[in-house]
Write a structure and sequence with these properties.
about 180 residues; single chain; 7 helices; about 0% strand; about 65% helix
Length: about 180
């Protein structure tokens, strides 16, 4: 999934969630399709935001595509299954790890399973998905070039200089604004 596709999915998911909320205000109460829109929209929003955070320009998601797809499938299936199960829970119903079936799907499947999968996936792909030595060197050189241009005087036409308030805030401070002076 690219950034463009992820943004489109995020927009669609947001519209689905908005329609689900709006359906609650319809005369006669929430229609039967309202919760289903929410059950599809929420997992789609979560996966779209994860993808936006993980995609680097031009390189895609790499090995994170499979864990994200798996987590999205688990979230979607969990919400849809919990919503689609009959509401027949009563005293004496079978318990799964101490909870009725619907509650165990929500807590264990939707709540805990992604918490186990995603950190492991991020840890396994950390070296490939974070800045490598060349990227760090490129950023360092860009910072040095910016500092040289700033020390040389006014910015040439077409190169935006930082606002005076930002430059003044960096004078004499050790905050991030004054680090590359």
């Amino acid at each position: 999934m690219t950034k463009r596709t992820s943004l489109a999915a995020l927009l669609l998911a947001t519209l689905l969630i908005a329609a689900a909320y709006a359906s609650a205000f319809l005369p006669g109460g929430t229609p039967p399709w309202g919760p289903w829109l929410m059950a599809v929209g929420v997992p789609l929003v979560l996966v779209s935001v994860m993808v936006l955070g993980a995609v680097r320009s031009g390189s895609g998601m790499g090995r994170l595509a499979w864990p994200f797809a798996f987590v999205g499938g688990i979230l979607g299936a969990g919400f849809l299954l919990a919503l689609g199960l009959p509401a027949d829970e009563a005293a004496g119903v079978a318990l799964y790890l101490g909870l009725p079936l619907r509650a165990s799907i929500i807590l264990y499947g939707i709540g805990l399973l992604p918490i186990v999968i995603l950190p492991v996936a991020y840890a396994l792909t950390f070296d490939a998905m974070t800045l490598n030595a060349e990227d760090v060197e490129r950023v360092r050189l860009a910072g040095e070039e910016w500092a040289r241009r700033r020390a040389a005087g006014p910015a040439p036409a077409g190169l935006a200089a930082p606002p005076e308030s930002v430059a003044a805030a960096g004078e004499g401070s050790t905050s991030g604004a004054g680090v590359l002076r």
